[in-house]
Amino acid sequence: MRAVIQRVREASVIVDDQVRGSVGQGLLIFLGIEDADNEEDIQWLSGKIVNLRIFDDSDGVMNLSVKDTGGDILLVSQFTLHASTRKGNRPSYIRASKPEIAIPLYEKMIRQLETDRGKKIQTGEFGADMQVRLWNNGPVTITIDTKAKE
Known about the structure:
By secondary structure, this protein is of the alpha/beta class.
């Protein structure tokens, strides 16, 4: 799994001119799923996300997590995170999982984040043409790949 995590002041996802999910202060997470991903990746990544200390404490030091601040999470599926640009100029998405594999993993990730965060999270709509609005705070953007675990 690959995640792009952005600390936001607010973010929303629009599908067919309707707001599908929105958050105030918290995290906007773009999630890419590949066939090799499994429950272990979900548990590890969710735990890492909700405990990632990227929010400022009272001294202005990034020392607090989304759990600590009471912030919200907006999760958006994004198969293009597994784009390969090695050959030519047209990206290949061969590593991105097909919906029959990706949807159950995406739904498990939603449940795991809700469990680890301790409250409901907001989502986009898997496979939809989504318009994403965000007000990046910082900007702070972190990328995590469960296969690299850096």
